[in-house]
Specification:
binds adenosine-5'-triphosphate, ABC transporter transmembrane region fold, disordered C terminus, ABC-type oligopeptide transporter activity, Rossmann fold, AAA+_ATPase, 554 residues, 4-stranded antiparallel sheet, transmembrane
């Protein structure tokens, strides 16, 4: 979805609106600043014409003192508006970031499976460049537009013909700025994209550092990262060249324009059409005629990336439909039955059906063992039950209600899952176990016992305060799995327990412990167990083999 500037501005305005009175105060300060800034050239004219040329010391002193006061006032107004806009800038940015942070975790699973985490992070960081919307450069551009109008008015009142002549130069600046802006936008876009890709590659390599070393593919990885880094550097060079070219061209034009003023203004003084004072005032106002265009150029250097970043942020983060809860969905308090009727599903980016015409029925007390070779769709069935995808054929019912009508948050709250890919926070063992619900000491000790963690935790010098490292890097595969099991047991009020290859890394003793827990303590729950071994055959009352049409046991 291509967004126009209007769409982008209205998006920014949504945030401005929240502090509209401060923005209005800021604009009043800017207008006051403009009026004060218009005084010095006119006062200079009076200093020359009525003081110096008329050889009147008192008048000279009077205007010099007024000039001092004007500059003082200008400084105070400048300082106040810049403080105010710094405050507004940072708070507006903070609001945007908060919204983005909230949005990101509400995006569908597809967003996280199709984009590298480093790439997502880099794109989120692009928000920082939005700060330039309210930076001093932008303020200067706004002030210069006000000043342009004021200066034009005063110049016309002093000498109409000379003003028209000087105005002729403005379109030249406009054209150069426009061409320059276009190429800058193009290079900014590609440099942001290449930068995000570079971050993605780098983060992937850092996360997979151990595996890369094991496979001995360090050089290959370095080559790929360097290639991404080179592409990023190339676009940055192009952007830099375009920026220097544009800036230099504009500087040259403004120098030539002042020579032009020297010539036409000087000729007017020689022909006695204007006084020296008027010439001096013209020299002061002259720069204000081109200032909006020149300032726009400088502002563009910072604001253009901000516009591009905003478009990219909106295109990227908002192209996925959020998993938003409208409040109309049914809130679940318990799950008594889950059913899948004739369900067929393929992933949004996949061509083939992962599961076809699949049926499942589980009431409280049912323990289902899901079997089937790798890639046969076992974990996909769990994802569908959790409402991660809606684009399936057939029906998924919870307590007889279409699962699409049920609040996903309330549904997921009633599931305890030990997934195949376990994610641990980089914090202590205890914090990882109590990630969803707080437990009292007695409950917590029971959880440690049931998950087979107690002995291990007690053997550690820091006990359950031991940090697990990034994604459990400091623990063994089995220990990670035990923490995930403890986490699932610790979650209060669950009605459905899912064990997706939950015991693959466990020793036989712990496996038996978990088996006993499932057998003895989950009899009034629904259990879905995915396992390749025959370990759980005897404690399940239903076995579904995804390679076979019929269910093996009922
Ligand atoms: N996010 C995804 N996007 C596209 N295809 C996917 C996605 N996740 C899984 N698949 C594909 O769907 C199929 C089923 O995957 P799934 O993880 O459900 O299998 P599984 O039966 O649990 O396998 P395993 O026994 O190896 O754990 C696989 O072919 C896999 O490549």
């Amino acid at each position: 979805m291509a967004l126009n500037k209007f769409g982008t501005l209205s998006f920014v305005f949504k945030y401005v609106k929240r502090r509209i009175w401060l923005f209005i105060l800021g604009m009043i300060l800017l207008i006051a600043l403009t009026l004060v800034a218009l005084l010095p050239p006119y006062l200079t004219k009076l200093v020359f014409d009525e003081g110096i040329m008329a050889r009147n010391m008192n008048v000279l002193i009077k205007y010099v003192l007024i000039l001092v006061g004007t500059y003082l006032l200008q400084s105070i107004l400048n300082y106040s508006s810049s403080v105010l806009f710094t405050f507004l800038n940072q708070h507006t940015l903070l609001d945007m970031k908060k919204d983005l942070n909230k949005n990101i975790l509400n995006l569908p699973l597809e967003f996280f499976t199709t984009n590298e985490s480093g790439y997502i992070l880099a794109r989120m960081k692009e928000v920082d460049s939005l700060s330039s919307f309210f930076s001093m450069n932008t303020l200067r551009t706004i002030i210069s537009i006000f000043e342009f109008v004021g200066a034009l008015f005063i110049m016309f009142s002093m000498n109409f013909k000379l003003t028209i002549l000087l105005l002729l130069m403005v379109p030249v600046f406009g054209i150069v700025t426009k061409i320059f802006g276009r190429s800058l936008k193009k290079f900014t876009h590609s440099s942001l994209e290449k930068g995000a890709m570079y971050s993605g590659k780098l983060q992937q390599a850092i996360l997979g550092g151990e595996e890369i070393k094991r496979l001995g593919i360090e050089e290959k990885q370095v080559k790929e990262i360097n290639q991404a880094s080179e592409q990023f550097a190339k676009t940055m060079i192009k952007r830099g060249i375009s920026m220097s070219g544009g800036t230099e061209l504009l500087t040259l034009f403004s120098s030539l324009a002042s020579v032009f003023l020297l010539y036409v203004g000087g000729s007017a003084v020689l022909n006695e059409n204007i006084s020296i004072g008027t010439y001096m005032a013209f020299a002061g106002y002259f720069s204000k005629l081109y200032a909006p265009v020149l300032n726009w150029n400088t502002t563009m250097l910072t604001i253009q990336p901000a516009f591009v970043a905003l478009e990219r942020i909106r295109n990227f983060f908002f192209k996925y439909q959020k998993e938003e809860e409208t409040g109309d969905e049914l809130e679940l308090n318990q799950i008594n039955e889950i059913e899948m009727k004739n369900v067929s599903f393929k992933y949004p980016d996949g061509n083939d059906y992962v599961i076809e015409n699949f049926d499942l029925n589980a009431k409280k007390g049912t323990k289902i063992l899901l079997k089937g070779p790798n890639g046969s769709g076992k974990s996909t069935i769990i994802r569908l039950l959790l409402g991660f995808y809606n684009n399936y054929d057939g029906k998924i019912l919870v307590n007889g209600t279409d699962s699409k009508k049920i609040s996903k948050k309330s549904l997921r709250k009633l599931f305890s899952i030990v997934s195949q890919r376990i994610f641990l926070l980089n914090s202590s063992i205890a914090e990882n176990i109590k990630i969803v619900d707080e437990l009292d000491e007695e409950q917590y000790q029971k959880v440690l016992l049931k998950s087979g963690l107690k002995e291990f935790v007690n053997s550690l010098p820091l006990k359950d305060k031991t940090p697990v490292g990034e994604n459990g890097i400091k623990l063994s595969g089995g220990q990670i799995q035990k923490i995930a099991i403890a986490r699932a047991i610790a979650k209060a009020n669950s009605d459905v327990y899912v064990f997706d290859e939950a015991t693959a890394h466990l020793d036989s003793e712990t496996r038996e412990l978990i088996k006993r827990f499932i057998k003895e303590e989950l009899n009034d729950k629904i259990c879905l167990i995915i396992d390749h071994s025959n370990n759980f055959d005897d404690i399940c009352n239903k076995i579904i083999d995804l390679t076979k049409e019929e269910q093996l046991k009922n």
